[in-house]
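Our preliminary data section would be incomplete without showing what the modeling component actually yields. Below, a chain of 882 amino acids is followed by its predicted structure, encoded as tokens that our downstream tools consume directly.
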Amino acid sequence: MGKAANISTVYDPKKVEDKWYDYWLEGGYFTPEIDYSKRPFTIVIPPPNVTGQLHMGHALNNTMQDIIIRKKRMEGIPTLWLPGTDHAGIATEAKVKEQIAEEGLSKYDLGREEFLKRVWQWKEKYGGTIIKQLKKLGASCDWSRERFTMDEGCSEAVREVFVRLYEKGLIYRGDYIVNWCPTCHTTLSDIEVEHIEEEGKLWHIKYPFKDGSGYVTVATTRPETMLGDTCVAVHPDDERYKELVGRTLILPILNREIPIVADEYVDPEFGSGAVKVTPAHDPNDFEIGIRHNQEPIVVIDDEGKMTKNAGKYEGMDRYECRKTLIKDLDEQGYLLKVEDHYHNVGHCYRCDTTIEPMISKQWFVKMKPLAEPAIEVVKEGKIRFIPERFTKIYINWLENIKDWCISRQLWWGHRIPAWYCKNCGEIIVARETPKSCSKCGGNILEQDPDVLDTWFSSALWPFSTLGWPRETEDLKYFYPTSVLVTGYDIIFFWVARMIFSGLEFMKDIPFKDVVVTGLVRDSLGRKMSKSLGNGIDPLEVIEKYGADTLRFTLSTGNTPGNDLRFYWERVESSRNFANKIWNASRFVMMNLEDFTPKGDMDTAKLTIADKWILSRYNSIIKEVTKSLDSYEFGIAAQKLYDFIWSEFCDWYIELTKPRLYGEDMESRVTAQHVLWLVLSGTMKLLHPFMPFITEEIWQHLPHEGESIMVSKWPEFDEANCFPDDESKMYLIMEAIRSIRNIRGELNVAPSRKAEAVVRVSSDDVLEILKEGAVYIKNLANVSKITFIEKKEDVPKKAMTAVISGAEIYMPLEGLVDIDKEIERLQKELKNLKSEIERANKKLSNKGFLEKAPKDVVEKERKKQKDYTERYKKVEERLKLFM
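Predicted structure:
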């Protein structure tokens, strides 16, 4: 049992946060015990890139996860938040390539083995940065179970999955059109390509008939690809071209013969209705080429340069070729016209380079058989998206899914477990490196140089991290996990793939709820980016204001699925909230020095104020618990803010002060008990949001147990419901507010006592206000309260306030110097009158209205309105005094 002790006058997060985080780690509070008598609660962290630095998106996402985890842990549930990092193939390789470039080296100079050594060294040196930053945020992950997508266990899981899918016929290798990034030198899956609308050109080019009888016009946004054209396609029902199908055209510049084919893919409404077909450099053209037996002709290589098939343009960069080719087409009379044209252009999500569709031998996962059960579990409600609108997006994507290209032309990552026999060409896919060919017995085997898409290993995260393919205790107990908290930008990249992987390999869903967070935007609603220079470093916010302040800022106004605007004013507000809590807690602690909680409170000894705050606290328990269980973090945070700031600090503490300082010891002990119960319980409710300050305060309060984070979550108690007393207290508070407002309007000095005359409409109201008279006197600084029934007893010169069931009058005599007040009001009327006349004159001036900017005119109209309203109020006040 702890005792209230001396506590610092000012809250300093720097002194508190590291101290308590170390304490929690040493106590092992983040590490759950396996207890088969209890159902566990599990979250796997969306693994941040090992290259990463904590950004606001991470801070938001991990704060939400920590709120869920801390509450569940306090509910006595074995709670696991499993952390880890992703090897991030493209990003990490790019970092190390930059590093060795400073030494004048490329990865090819080092060779694969030496380069990978450098990557591992880089990972060991810098890879833990984001983990340290997550600890600064207060993330209560079980660091003893931390994983990395390329650690031994996860790598074993990756090989096992690849082999099983291959043996089942769901992984295959083939020529296919892929998205190629000429800068990163690797393929990208469709969802790794970001489509950006750009202003481009549409070139209309003549393709002459072989017999010289005319030409067909085709339109293209990528003229350099025409050098790889194998045919021109038209729609079979297009009357303009029906007679031309089967005829031969001459490809301009290269003078190659190409046929006209009929294909239903062609849109007769676009351009001329005739489409040039380049099977090697367009995914749709690739399909047309297959249907019409057209051999692809590659004219752009993996560096984005033209190949020998491009004739005299060989070796040119693709955009340099475009310029030269357009000039040649124009000079030779093939260029018919050029139009401005807006179209979507694919860019690499990593480096922003324009994607080049290329034919390449790649490894693919057949998606249809895996997608169907992943659609069903969501349709059946076994997995639900919060908010629900993301269900439709998820299902629509999976219903239209293409096979997934999983090979990447990188060195850093999980190398594809496939070997090629140099003797007979056999492909061997195996869990372990084979010593000889299973077909011919030859021992000259070469492993596929490519690595797997980073998302291939991330897809296994909910079960590979728990030990799969081995049957571990963790896997048996903690899978399936409970909730996934993730940004909407990776639903396809990651969420869908985890669902079908879990169903395929664990025969069970990977999680029950998917809570979708939005993006953190700047105060103007713009996405935070380096180019705009509007990014805010969460570590800087933590350094200046503390982690609790950042966490609470990200929690307030946060609704699942919606973007969150970051305002510095809200950070200041959260910091002020922390200070308010600290100062109020200090006051309570100073008044609990001689207090030890003993058993339950005697309800008969509770005042109306005690019952009101206990009842309100009881309601807050219910509301916050319900909001958090519904993932309504913003609503829960706002309810706590309003209760703590307004009801507990501004009202209840003030209401108890006379009892704490008074002679009645019994009343004092009751007030102490209520203050202790409500403050310690509210700190528990606030703990998931602001873990550090709540631990510091709780440790200074009388308590049982070692830490607030493993203390019992408060529960709603019917015995603490006092609805009648709540209603009574609201009426008393209304009376206090009304008197305070009158004093404020009259600028009455706080030290000057006032009288109040109250005319009530019923005996019930009279009884309540009499019971609350002591509070009204203390909090509204009233010396005397007189209750009247008749209207004629109302004081003649008095300010009036109307409240529920009563009228409150404050006699002006003795409260203000009436003659001085009349003089002040007459002077104010005169000033307001001249301001109104000035505004009227300005607004009746046609020249001002026509020439002045709109906002200036609008400001003047607002001034005119404000002055007129103020004039009426001052005039009414003057009548009262006269």
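The chain has a mean pLDDT of 91. The two ends are 65 Å apart (CA to CA). Preliminary results of this kind motivate Aim 1 of the renewal.
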